[in-house]
Amino acid sequence: MENFLLFPLSLILPIFALALFYYTLKPPKPETEKLERLPPGSFGWPIIGETFAFVNQDHDKFIAERMRKYSPKIFKTKILGEKTVVLCGTSGHKFVASNEEKLFLAWRPHSMQKLFRSSYQKVDSAAIPRQAEVQIMKAPGFLRPESLFKYVEVMDSLVAQHFDTYWARKGVIEVHHLAQLLVLTLSGRFFLGLDDPNRIQKLSKLLDTMMFALHVIPLDFPGTIFHRAMVAAKAVREDLQLLIREKRAAMAAGVKMNDVLSFMINNPDPNGRYMPENEIADKVMGLVAAAFNSPAMTTAFIVKYLGQRPDIYDKVRNEQEEIGRSKKEGERLNWEDMQKMKYSWNVALEVMRLIPPLQGTFREAAADITYEGYTIPKGWKVYWTVSTTSMNPEHFPAPVEFDPARYEKSSVPPYTNIPFGSGPRICPGKDYARLQILTFMHHLVTKFKWDVLNPNCKVLGGMNPIPIQGLQIRLH
Fold this sequence. Notes:
The chain crosses the membrane at residues 6-25. The chain is an alpha+beta fold and 476 residues long. 50% of the residues lie in helices and 9% in strands. It has a 5-stranded mixed beta sheet with strand order 1-2-8-5-3. The protein has a 3-stranded antiparallel beta sheet with strand order 4-10-9. It has a two-stranded antiparallel ribbon with strand order 6-7. Strand 6 and strand 7 form a beta hairpin.
C-alpha cells in the first residue's frame, strides 16, 4: 500500500507551533497530580507523543527498548493521542484479565472509534458495549462450541471450492489477499448469509483498505490512509444496509434464513428494542472486520512457515492424510476429524506465538489504579502487549525458533501464548477461528507443495503485522 505517512510535512510546523502555544499557556498541574507516583517513561514529543515509533517501528523493538530503559513490568508513554501505561509480562496480562469490567473498561483508539462508531453513538471514550457479542452468543447455532459442529461440513465444502477456484492450476499466487477472500467467504456465509462471490470480493477489498488505518492518527483529508479507510468504511456500511433491506424483503416473503445478520434483524437487543438498519450495519461491520483481519494474517503466515520448513510440512501432511484415508469417497470433514488435528493446531499456535494476529490491546482505567507501586490515573489508557510473554525465554526456550513440538513437551503456562486474549473478554469466535484454520490447513497440505518467493516480506509495524506487499508463493 502506498502512502503510509501519518503527517504530511506541511503539517509539522503548524503542529509544533500549536504545541509550543499549548505548553506555554497551560496551567500548572494541581498539587494532587504532582504527588502521584506515575510509572517511569516518557510522553515523547508534544501532542504526538511517541505515536510515530509505535505505529511504524517493529512492535517488539518499541516495547523492548522501553522495558530496558524504564522497567520490565510497567512504563508510561503517549500514543495515538492518549497518555498510556504499558503493562508487560505474565503478571501484567493476568492483572488486566482478572480485573476486566471492574478496574478496566474496553477502549478503542480514536481511529477505530471513527471507522466503526455508529451514527447513534455520541461518546468517544467509554466502555465498549458488548450487545452484539451478547446477541450472537444468544443466537442458536453461532460461535458456541457445542453448536459449531454442524457447520464443519459446510465450511469444508466452501474451503475446497476456494482452493479449486483460486489455487488449483495456478503458478505464482499471493497468499494474504486470497486468505482474506477465504475468511470473508466463510463469514459471509455464516454471519451474513451472503453467497455472491462478486459482493464478497468487493467487501474484501474495502475491508483490506480499512485494516491499514485501525491504529493511526485519524487525519481525515484526501491523501491520507485514514481518509481512504473512512471512504471504504462508508461503502461497507452502505453495502450492508442494502443487504439488510434485501434480507428483510426475503423474510417478509417467507424465506427462512439462519445467519447472524438475520437473527439481529428479527430479534430485539437486551433492552427489548429492535435495532434500526444503520445500527445493525455498524455492529455487523465490526463483527465481520474482527473475523477478517486476524484469521487472514495467521493463515498467510502458516503458509510461510510451512513452506520454509519441509520437515514440519511433512508432519502436518501425514496427520491430514491419515484423516483423509479414514473418509469415504466424497465424505466431508466433521467435528471428530477436527479433534484429531492436534499437531496441525500446534503449528497454528506456534505461528500465532511468533506472529501474534494482534500485538496487544487497549483498556481504559475506570478508577485510579495502583500497580507495582505506581498510580495509573483514572481515564488513562492501559495497553498490554503480547510479545512480552510469547517471546519470553522463561516460558518458551529458544523463543525465535519455529518449534510446534514445544506444546507436546509441556503445557503452556497461563497468560503466555494468548492469541485470542484472556479473561472475560476472550475472543468469542476463537473456536470458530480454530475450525477455519484447521480446515484450510487440511486442504492446503493434501493438495499442494510450494516455495515461498519472498520469505523476508516486509511486515507492517505497530499492532497489526500485515505483510504489506503480500506473500508470494509458487505452487507445485
